TrEMBL record:
It comes from Terasakiispira papahanaumokuakeensis. The lineage of its organism: Bacteria, Pseudomonadati, Pseudomonadota, Gammaproteobacteria, Oceanospirillales. Residues 1-24, 242-261, 293-317 are annotated as: Disordered. This is Uncharacterized protein. It comes from the Bacteria.
């Protein structure tokens, strides 16, 4: 009787299947809660960041740019831009936007210092979203340049993807930064650069009849800026974790150092539609009505209430940031609104305007507004109302709150909407 070899026995033995490791479920993020962690903006006046607020500079005359009546224009330029321009870029607006982006990228490492490393020692994931009004082949060219440049840098993050989006507005911020159906990173870098200091920009301002010239000094002066904002997406809470439980826990210093308590909460904004500012000077009344509907009324606690008075109260800002005060009627309109609704705010002492630091930079203005709002409230428990008033019949609004003040309210269920 033959003896079975060891090799035959091995062949007959069925291999033991390895246990399958369950795939981790993708993290779902709350589209209604977005946190601004840090921001750095380059303007003609200087760098705007948590620890930097430059003094406004005067515009300079540019003999190469001519107004509609043949006059030279006063413009705001960001100094010392990167001069390297790829040969494939020939569009004037694209060249200037890429030079601004390249110059800002020198600030990227400083901004990413706010991103903590993963607990397992790996690099945290980051999505990059570039807001631009460039279109077609020109946009694709700059997009490729941006993606390749980021890939060549040694960064303390894993850049998961680089995307472009249409120009961002205050009331569409949450929708445009929402991850959608695809897997998303917890961290988002929103980039934007804009300039009107070129012939197409001057032509656009002139066509809109808002260009400031020698003969018409009230209006927008061509300017430029580049901005980068670091956001953190908030995971959706499971049914087992209730907001009141999270708020009842005292955050540890470890969490604070990791950025869990740093930054500002941005609640979804809305856009107020109203009659033309040029035809009717009642925009302040329409804004007041829309704010009353959207934010909590500024009212003190009842005399015998057991609840402590909260400061700042949700919906009652401590500061205001606008895109421009240079267009006709804007200063009076906002001053009237503040006197009627927020008398504790002085437009000069507690406000900031984008065009005061950089002229009119174009569609990147909303990004700069958010960066200014963050810089205004650094180190304070405060909130900022951000208004875009450059349009004639619409006013986008968003509220930015420091995390400490936002913890006082867990009942917010709003979403971006149109008020009329």
């Amino acid at each position: 009787m033959s003896k079975t070899s060891i090799y035959d026995q091995l062949y007959q033995r069925r291999p033991t299947p390895e246990p399958k490791v369950p795939e981790a479920a993708p993290v779902l993020y709350d589209p209604q809660r977005l946190y601004l962690i840090d921001a750095i903006t380059l303007t003609p006046s200087g760098r705007v960041a948590k620890d930097d607020w430059p003094e406004p500079v005067a515009p300079e005359r540019d003999v190469s740019l001519i107004g509609p009546h043949g006059e030279t224009l006063l413009v705001y330029r960001v100094p010392e831009l990167v001069d390297q321009v790829p040969v494939q870029l020939t569009d004037a607006a694209a060249i200037k936007e890429w030079r601004l982006l390249q110059t800002w990228l020198d600030e990227l490492i400083a901004l990413l210092l706010s991103v903590p490393g993963n607990e397992d020692g790996g690099l945290p994931d980051l999505d990059v979203i570039w807001s631009t009004d460039l279109t077609g082949h020109v946009r694709d060219q700059v997009h490729t340049l941006l993606r390749d440049t980021l890939s060549a840098l040694r960064l303390p993050v894993n850049v998961q993807r680089v995307e472009s989006c249409r120009p961002l507005a205050l009331h569409t911020l949450h929708q445009q930064l929402a991850p959608g159906d695809q897997p998303a990173a917890p961290w988002v870098l929103l980039l934007g650069a804009g300039s009107c200091v070129h012939a197409p920009g001057v032509s656009a301002l002139s066509h809109q009849q808002c260009l400031a010239t020698t003969t018409q000094p009230v209006g927008l002066r061509p300017g430029e800026a580049a901005s980068g904002l670091l956001f953190k997406r908030q995971p959706l809470l499971s049914e087992k974790i209730r907001p009141e439980k999270l708020l009842s826990e005292t955050p540890s210093s470890e969490h604070t150092d990791r950025g869990d308590e740093a930054g500002w909460l941005l609640r979804p904004g809305f856009v107020c539609r109203h009659p033309s500012r040029d035809r009717q000077r009642r925009a302040a009344d329409h804004l007041d009505q829309a704010l009353s509907e959207h934010f909590a009324e500024h009212s003190s606690q009842p005399e015998h209430s057991s609840q402590p008075e909260q400061s700042p109260d949700h919906g009652v800002p401590d500061f205001i940031v606008v895109d421009t005060l240079s267009l006709p009627g804007r200063s009076v309109e906002l001053a009237t609104l503040l006197m009627k609704r927020y008398p504790h705010i002085d437009l000069i002492e507690h406000g900031a305007a984008v065009d005061a630091l950089c002229g009119w930079p174009g569609v990147v203005a909303p990004l700069i507004q958010l960066a200014l709002a963050a810089a205004l409230t650094e180190g304070a428990e405060a909130s900022v109302a951000v208004f875009s008033v450059n349009q004639d019949e619409t006013t986008p609004v968003i509220m930015l709150e420091t995390r400490a003040s936002a913890h006082s309210d867990t009942s917010y269920q709003g979403e971006g909407r149109v008020a009329s």
